[in-house]
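One such shown below:

_____
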Amino acid sequence: MGNIAISPLLRETLAPLSAHYDDPATVEIRMTKPGIVITDRRGTGKQAVRDEGLTLAAVEAVARSLGNYHGLGFNGEDRPKLSCVLPGGHRFECLVGPSVQSGLSLAIRCKHPFTPSWDQVGASEAVVRYLTDAVDGERNLIVSGATNTGKTTLLNMLLAGLPDHRRVIGVEDTPELSLGRFWDGVGLIAAREEGGSHATGLQTWRQLYDHLMRATPDHIVFGEISTQNAFAALAALNSGVTGFMCTIHAESPHQAIHRKFDQNIAWSGETMPRVPEFLSELVDVVVQIKRDSSGFRRITDIYEPRADRFVLKDGKETGA
């Protein structure tokens, strides 16, 4: 949606919110109650500001317009949740109604153009060389981090080191990967919900997996691993591919390998035994990134599951 012209009416509807997220330094805005906007800006941290115009009715009007635009629907009653993308690629997540104690939970994850330097993410020349070699050598790699730690930004930085001719196939439900320069590559978009595929024309994760396995990728790049796509991602890894990359919500490399994939697969209703064992055999590198108090992100750990060793631990190179 970031590259699609929007109607003046939708732009006008978004204006009360866009006034808060248009600042290029804004990383995220949140609302936990009407009239109060929490902004998180790079370099300054977060603060709460009052905006009386952002009533619950105003937020619901924005969600209804966005739902209609994307063919997803939102009415604040029997469909009180909306997940979609705003102009500029910003991720919009809204929930209203009795499932929220305050009646409103809104988060907009901003995707303003910002590519940090390797120095800004705490990577020495040796670490950059290691990561570049890992990606170029088609090693299977996971970027792990908590919510809003810059996982996708780091993944795009890693992709930037690949030659333009690589056959890179990205699979995600929200377009965030930088794939445009790969002239033999392609980006695939999955329906966020199984039932939503009919209304939007989007394919399910299972359908995209079948296509992916027949499309001859050099690199398979999944977006964020979730309950919807964890089984498909693990199936891709288990197919013998190399050059697999993804991001996952986890606080440590150990958690990424031993808990989160397993948890997401279980929550999806699928079953697959010995998931951590598979990952330990199939994943070459886990890169952990964390956010500091100033809003900047730092690579803190690099772990090799197959060798069971750290290349970087707690920000210190181990010499392994």
Summary: The first strand starts at residue 26 and ends at 31. The chain has nine helices and 15 strands.
